[in-house]
Automatic annotation (TrEMBL):
EC number: 7.1.1.2
Keywords of the record: Membrane, Mitochondrion, Mitochondrion inner membrane, NAD, Transmembrane, Transmembrane helix, Transport, Ubiquinone
Functional summary from the UniProt entry: Core subunit of the mitochondrial membrane respiratory chain NADH dehydrogenase (Complex I) that is believed to belong to the minimal assembly required for catalysis. Complex I functions in the transfer of electrons from NADH to the respiratory chain. The immediate electron acceptor for the enzyme is believed to be ubiquinone.
Name assigned to this protein: NADH-ubiquinone oxidoreductase chain 1
Family: Belongs to the complex I subunit 1 family.
Provenance organism: Nezara viridula (Southern green stink bug)
Catalytic activity: a ubiquinone + NADH + 5 H(+)(in) = a ubiquinol + NAD(+) + 4 H(+)(out)
Main location: mitochondrion
PANTHER family associated with the record: NADH DEHYDROGENASE SUBUNIT 1 (PTHR11432), NADH-UBIQUINONE OXIDOREDUCTASE CHAIN 1 (PTHR11432:SF3)
Transmembrane segments: 6-25, 70-94, 100-120, 141-161, 173-193, 222-246, 252-272, 284-308
Entry GO MF terms: NADH dehydrogenase (ubiquinone) activity; NADH dehydrogenase activity
Amino acid sequence: MVLFLLIYLLMIICALICVSFVTLLERKVLGYIQIRKGPNKLGLIGLLQPFSDGIKLFFKEQSFPYKSNYLIFYLSPIFLLTLSFLLWVLYPYLMNLYNFNYGILFFMVCTGMGVYGIMLSGWSSNSNYALLGSIRSVAQVISYEVSLIMIMLCIVMFVFSYNLMDFMYYQKYIWFMFLSFPLFFCWLSSCLAETNRSPFDFAEGESELVSGFNVEYSSGGFAFIFLSEYMNIIFMSMLSVIMFMGCDLMSIMFYFKIILIVFWFIWVRGVLPRFRYDKLMYLTWKLFNGLSLNYFFMHLGLLLFVLYI
């Protein structure tokens, strides 16, 4: 038990360091997309910038709206960060420190709970902008969870297991991405919407909602929401690699593929304009859900054919 706690703590620290450098990567990539330099003054090529930003955030004054629901307002960012920490329990360790047989189900539960954190943080601020941002975000996340779960079930049928380790064994000779190419692109788009990233970042529409559901947060509260969002992005990138791109944990290419997906998240933010909200809902309910449902029945039919005929 002590060994498990130590290794889990080490993994969380590594994830937090990873978040700090992903923010630096994002600012650098967006800078070069917009034909300018990113942060490059603090330390060698700006490597100390994330630590400077973190220190600045945590040392700022914590302010609270006068009419906010103080306790819920204070605890919502902590709840969101705790959920992001819990997701990293699913990291597939090769040394069999613990074996998570129902990892996919645990992921579905944690992402479903994330909706409550967003909703409560917007509502407890007692601000119209924050409430509108949280309502938008909740509607978006719930809608895209349907397609996300359908796509996951389609891929689970290949391995007949909820354990993430089994994806490594079954993708030894061919990646699942090649067996279901359209599903892979649906998955990537759903990941963008699930993590509230551009072009689906309606919870943070600056032109009409200032900064969305986190508009009233400052200092540590904002930092916790920020960390939670970026930890979810890195985790979704890792899950994409595990499920579709050959989960070879013994190879350094596994981590390069994660960096590639993270870079894709940033690249999409730099080149695509924000969607219209009705187009966002149309995309999931009319396109992604229909496609994933068709794939689900096709995979189910093939499975029954192989097992019983």
